[in-house]
Design a protein that fits this description.
The structure holds two protein chains of two kinds.
Chain A lengths: L4 E3 L2 E4 L5 E6 L6 E8 L3 E9 L2 E5 L6 E5 L5 E5 L8 E8 L10 E2 L3 E5 L1
Parallel strand pairs in A: 2-11
Antiparallel strand pairs in A: 1-3, 3-8, 4-5, 4-9, 5-6, 7-8, 9-10, 9-11
Chain B lengths: L2 E4 L4 E4 L4 E3 L1 E4 L5 E7 L5 E7 L5 E4 L2 E4 L9 E3 L8 E9 L4 E7 L3 E6 L1
Parallel strand pairs in B: 2-12
Antiparallel strand pairs in B: 1-4, 3-9, 5-6, 5-10, 7-8, 8-9, 10-11, 10-12
The chains are: A mainly beta, B mainly beta.
């Protein structure tokens, strides 16, 4: 158990809908990262928050947004869902930012299926 | 931009066989290099890392050496076990390109070890 909790574990929804994925980082970790794992794109970085502030953005679509709350949990909001958004969404947390001396701990992921 | 290239999988070996999974990278500066492992139904776990040229990362019998001259970070294990069956990801973080706060992953290599 990495200490990072993601809910829900599975989500099935229809095209055009909106969903919210939730991540609780390890106790004491200030950084939260979101990654998308799909068959065609592999593992891709979406966005990074540190202590409530956005720090870096990767290949995140405009239909997607995220935030980190004062209690440090984070939510990833996906809207106007398309079939191609079906993927495994991972959250990771670390004490600081990724780097030579910072290990990121990954949750078990939320599997999103858009039908 | 930064990128990581892993050998194509899947890889199937017999127990006690020698394992090599090739990984090469392209980066702007001098990245930190990582190997992550993903067991079925779980999130990614850090297996080992190296932060500068000629460093060797090792853990659980796995080793990888940071080779700047060949821009490689190949994963090796002398004698694999059935319990090593998983997907292995090579990754980097690159402070010079401004992506120190995110991981760039390779496509992953599925390893199956047969008894």
């Amino acid at each position: 158990d990495s200490g990072v909790t993601q809910t829900p574990k599975h989500l099935i929804t229809a095209t055009g809908q909106r969903v919210t994925l939730r991540c609780s980082p390890r106790s004491g970790d200030l950084s939260v990262y979101w990654y998308q794992q799909s068959l065609d794109q592999g593992l891709q970085f979406l966005i990074h928050y540190y202590n409530g502030e956005e720090r870096a953005k990767g290949n995140i679509l405009e239909r997607f947004s995220a935030q980190q709350f004062p209690d440090l949990h984070s939510e990833l909001n996906l809207s106007s869902l398309e079939l191609g958004d079906s993927a495994l969404y991972f959250c990771a947390s670390s004490v600081g930012s990724h780097g030579a001396n910072t290990e990121a701990f990954f949750g078990q992921g939320t599997r999103l299926t858009v039908v | 931009g930064d990128s990581v290239t892993q050998m194509e999988g899947p890889v199937t070996l017999s127990e006690e066989a020698f394992l090599t999974i090739n990984c090469t990278y392209t980066a702007t500066g001098y990245p930190s290099l990582f190997w992550y492992v993903q067991y079925p139904g779980e999130g990614l776990q850090l297996l080992l890392k190296a932060t500068k040229a000629d460093d060797k990362g090792s853990n659980k019998g796995f080793e990888a050496t940071y080779r700047k001259e060949t821009t490689s970070f190949h994963l090796e294990k002398g004698s694999v076990q059935v319990s090593d069956s998983a997907v292995y990801f090579c990754a980097l973080s690159d402070r010079a390109s401004g992506s120190a706060r995110q991981l760039t992953f390779g496509s992953g290599t599925q390893l199956t070890v047969l008894p």
